[in-house]
Write a structure and sequence with these properties.
This protein is mainly β. The chain has no helices and seven strands. The chain starts with 5 loop residues before the first strand and ends with a strand.
Protein backbone atom coordinates (compact mmCIF):
# COMPACT_ATOMS: atom_id res chain seq x y z
CA UNK A 1 0.00 0.00 0.00
CA UNK A 2 1.26 3.48 -0.85
CA UNK A 3 1.76 6.08 1.86
CA UNK A 4 1.00 8.87 -0.58
CA UNK A 5 -2.13 10.96 -0.75
CA UNK A 6 -4.18 11.07 -3.92
CA UNK A 7 -5.36 14.41 -5.29
CA UNK A 8 -8.36 15.58 -7.28
CA UNK A 9 -9.00 19.02 -8.78
CA UNK A 10 -12.36 20.54 -9.63
CA UNK A 11 -12.73 21.21 -13.36
CA UNK A 12 -16.07 22.40 -14.75
CA UNK A 13 -17.93 20.90 -11.79
CA UNK A 14 -16.21 17.50 -12.02
CA UNK A 15 -13.52 16.07 -9.73
CA UNK A 16 -10.58 14.77 -11.77
CA UNK A 17 -7.47 12.95 -10.54
CA UNK A 18 -4.20 14.87 -10.84
CA UNK A 19 -0.64 14.54 -9.60
CA UNK A 20 0.10 16.82 -6.65
CA UNK A 21 2.95 18.51 -8.53
CA UNK A 22 0.50 19.60 -11.27
CA UNK A 23 -1.79 21.64 -9.00
CA UNK A 24 -1.67 25.31 -9.98
CA UNK A 25 -2.30 28.41 -7.89
CA UNK A 26 -6.06 29.06 -7.90
CA UNK A 27 -7.08 25.39 -8.39
CA UNK A 28 -9.76 23.96 -6.10
CA UNK A 29 -8.56 20.58 -4.91
CA UNK A 30 -9.04 17.87 -2.33
CA UNK A 31 -6.67 15.28 -0.90
CA UNK A 32 -7.26 11.70 0.15
CA UNK A 33 -5.10 9.73 2.55
CA UNK A 34 -3.65 6.40 1.41
CA UNK A 35 -6.57 4.80 3.30
CA UNK A 36 -9.08 6.64 1.08
CA UNK A 37 -10.21 8.98 3.85
CA UNK A 38 -10.41 12.66 2.86
CA UNK A 39 -7.71 14.90 4.29
CA UNK A 40 -9.22 17.52 6.60
CA UNK A 41 -8.30 21.18 6.86
CA UNK A 42 -7.82 22.98 10.16
CA UNK A 43 -11.54 23.77 10.26
CA UNK A 44 -12.62 20.27 9.25
CA UNK A 45 -13.33 20.97 5.58
CA UNK A 46 -12.17 18.85 2.68
CA UNK A 47 -11.90 21.33 -0.21
CA UNK A 48 -8.97 23.70 -0.61
CA UNK A 49 -7.92 26.47 -2.97
CA UNK A 50 -4.25 26.54 -3.91
CA UNK A 51 -2.76 29.85 -2.78
CA UNK A 52 0.59 28.84 -4.32
CA UNK A 53 2.00 26.28 -6.69
CA UNK A 54 3.40 23.13 -5.03
CA UNK A 55 6.92 23.30 -3.62
CA UNK A 56 9.37 21.22 -1.60
CA UNK A 57 9.47 22.22 2.09
CA UNK A 58 12.67 22.64 4.11
CA UNK A 59 11.97 19.11 5.42
CA UNK A 60 12.06 17.75 1.86
CA UNK A 61 8.36 16.96 1.51
CA UNK A 62 5.73 18.31 -0.87
CA UNK A 63 3.97 21.45 0.32
CA UNK A 64 1.41 23.93 -0.91
CA UNK A 65 -0.13 27.07 0.56
CA UNK A 66 -3.92 26.90 0.79
CA UNK A 67 -7.05 28.89 1.36
CA UNK A 68 -10.07 27.00 2.56
CA UNK A 69 -10.55 23.78 4.42
CA UNK A 70 -13.58 25.16 6.20
CA UNK A 71 -16.61 23.02 6.83
CA UNK A 72 -19.26 23.42 4.16
Amino acid sequence: MSDFRSVEILVDGEWLPIEFKNIKKGDTFRLFESTGEPALGEDGGTEFIAASNPYITKDGVDGIDIKGGEKD
